[in-house]
Amino acid sequence: MHMAAKDWIAAYKLGYQDHLFSIQILLVAFGALVTVPILAGLDPAVALFTAGVATLIFHFFTKRQIPVFLASSFAYTAPIMVATQTWGIPAALGGLVAAGVVYMAIGGIIYWKGRNIIQTLFPPIVVGPVMMVIGLMLVPVAVSMALGKSNPANLIPQKIGLLIAVISLATTILIFLMARGTLKLIPIICGLVAGYLVSIPFGIIDFSIVAGAPWIAVPKFVTPRFNIDAVVFLIPAAVAPLIAHFGDILAIGEVADKDYLKEPGIHRTLMGNGAANTIAAFVGGPPVRIYAEITGMVTVFKKWQPSVMVWAALFAMGLSFLGKLSALFQSIPDPVNGGILILFFGVLVVAGINCLLKVQSELMEFRSILVVLLILATGIGGITFSAGALTLRGVALATLTGVILNLVLPDKKGPQDS
Description:
19 helices
């Protein structure tokens, strides 16, 4: 037991370069991480704490093999808002606890029934366009942030937002390409600092948030209360994120050149995400998902060590108790983050194209064209499928569409090719 503990500690002993990268992971994730709880009426500090806890839980279930960071999921925002208004926050949290348990149960069923079918469901012709959907859906979000349009309550003039975003992105790229020594290790921090400093003269930073925040503050944890109506309402809300989870795992596996569906296995990733959601809801945090921006970030920087994500999780948990520092991060204007995120979301699109090149000889067959076309159309075309409380759109609908088409379309060339 003593040796196991020593081995575990050794596995997470990092140099200062990797610690700097871990801090940048948290900075990149921070904007979306705190936006979800604000929209859903939950405490951002709790969401920050549970993002760290969720990431640690996920790495425990997946045997510390996948370089991902988990944090607040936008997919649950609307259902949480409705449940909160109808039954109150504690009852909504109780429903999310139950949804997380269902998430785990599906992972258990996959393990029980066997995992061999997973490889058949997700060939490159499905994985590639699903990755492109993830990036293409998120690029407009980053552009909206860059133009100062993402927060209707705090709109920023477009020309000012664009200037700040360009400076943030250009600084990040220049540091990444040209800097030497320690500076080359922190291109994201440099981009954020440059954008923040440029923003100050325009008067778009709310320093009152920082001034009013305490130095040390315990997050406002909330315990769940179980209401059968809220449980029944929120369990279907887990279906779309669950399907999208396959796309998230496919994306990180493709850019890391690893088959995470096979090892550690999709059953472990599902159970890890489900357990993370359940524990997060037990203390008042929103459900979590794998962050695509972090996948894009590790693709650019070629940092595949899961240990850096674990340290990012620990930093998040510590930051949740530091009121001033957390408020400082929250004061970063959207154009600063948006400019940098354009890079990381765009990388996912390119990675998806690269995945399709693996089947280049088959890509112009009519069957392949249909699969790619309809995945892209359903993912980014605004199509929504609803059945009762179940709603599928975006990555979830694109992934399901790709799997079904790959199974039902005949895998034969037309007569003209025979």
